[in-house]
Prior knowledge:
This protein has about 290 residues and is mainly alpha-helical. Helices cover about 65% and strands about 0% of the residues. The protein contains 13 helices and no strands. Helix 9 (about 170-185) runs antiparallel to helix 10 (about 190-205) and helix 10 (about 190-205) packs parallel to helix 12.
Amino acid sequence: MFNKGEELLKLCKEQNKKISEIVIEKEMKDSNMSYEELMDKMGKVLDIMKNSATSALDKEVISVSKITGGNAKKMEDYKNKGNTICGDLIISAMAKALSTSEINASMGKIVAAPTAGASGILPSALITVKEKFNLSDKELIHGLFTAAGIGEIVAKNATISGAEGGCQAECGVASSMAAAAIVELVGGDVESSFHAASFALINILGLVCDPIAGLVEFPCALRNASGVINALISADLAIAGVKSLLPFDEVVDAMYKVGKAMPESLRETALGGIAATPTGEEYKRRLL
Length: 288
Ligand code: SF4
């Protein structure tokens, strides 16, 4: 039905439908499920996301390796004290993204969106806009389908793997998926969703994958915190009327080429970037 962003955009325009509506129709066809069954299934996904995004806010969740954790609670406490630099919405969004990352690093249940390493971005983005605009769960489920449509296009035409394309392919794509969903959820048009998806990917094009000791913890959680903010600002840029000079499909192609041009040391091998610093090596020695 669609493989490229251009095709999805065309379908939306021809049928005067939102991205989520086209993606849901495609899913109904592919899975042979009814609308109600699909909504029910995605509702369960949303429940897991809500749980992971909030479980580490009021108690310290420490990773299995014990080298990270407790930062979601720190951010939540910081927000609750007031007088933050960035304001409640930004701090709260970062806390929620960190929460899911910490649940992931402690072997809790998360939804890979598109991967476990980048799993904090989409849940936090959706819950943040839900809280600000008082959205219903049904609307958020539709947002998940919008995000899924964007993720599917990237997976088909490029990569969503840090080992293949660096962190731009994980946290970058998660931000891109979230940005498109946010635009739709707050009433933006389909073109604006694609502009937002493009901005989020362009903003961190070239981001390497260099986890300390090869564990999906540091800098992964930080990149989830910044990733959700990337999604929110990309959505705001697009809704304000800022347009991407190039179409989403070309951005995806560029991301793929940049990923392929990255040396292996910067693609989840823990042999480059911050993983290869003296301190990064020391953590590796201690843990392994
Ligand atoms: S640094 Fe690598 S492992 Fe960590 S979130 Fe990014 S892509 Fe995933």
